[in-house]
Amino acid sequence: MQILTLPDGIRNERCDKVLSRQLNLPRSVVKFSFKRTPFICNGKAIHLHEKVNSGDRIFFEICDSLPPPLTSNDPCVLHIIFEDEDIIVINKPAGVVVHSAPGIQGKTLVEYVLGHCPLSRLGDPERPGIVHRLDRETTGLIVFAKSNRAFKRLTADFADHLIEKRYTCIIQGTPSLNTGKIEIPIARQNSDKIRMIACPSGKSAKTTWTIRECLDHFTWLDVRIHTGRTHQIRVHMSHIGHPIGGDKTYGYDGNFIFPRIMLHAESLGFIHPKTGEKISFFAPIPEDFSDILEKLQDDRK
Fold first, then answer.
1. How far apart are CA 24 and CA 34, in angstroms?
2. How far apart (Å, rounded) are the C-alpha atoms in residues 99 and 107?
């Protein structure tokens, strides 16, 4: 990787803008290079929208060219992060449902994956290889079990809350603290087949969060879920009065138009079902999320 030590005169500027200027490259090239190989700043992973300063050391790899544009015949091009004989890790796009269910139309993510490789048939035969889920509008990392060994191990580890799942999101408003913990049970709302609610009679749920950046009327948040309840982050954020941007199901008021619910599964860590090694994966925020952050940051100035 290349190393750049930022020169004097840079104070709280966005990483992508600084690199574009210092390397004399279009920001589109910087963005695509970041998606291929995440950048490191002072020893830690950094987002392109985070602020940098003079003296910061940035490790990066610039791609030679941009990818060709997708065509209308590619509604879901699989972005494979990792694959071996046991598992396949996908960076899921927005708008694609993970598996079929009543009322669901169009091709599901599991169907796209099956078009690429076989999956374990343990568990629900209509949901091969599925050990966890992401909502339709949520982007980011999801792992499928290819082998029965992987299905058994990952299912057990998810049930025992041994999987490390970290998300990033944009919420409405700004919490009064820089970090917080929410431990409120979650249950399905009887009158609604989709909506979940926070209530004492539900299943235990724990979410921790940290502010990444405060924006006008919104906040960019890092979130870790220690359990895996349906809509957990969406329910918990709404419960504390800060629904996720674009999430009208859980109380977003619609004062700013988001293209979707602003939630991204950024990192995923677990024990490999065959080797026993701890492995982890990272998925940079997608372009629609990045564009919204840029607009909110510009509006704040």
1. 16
2. 9
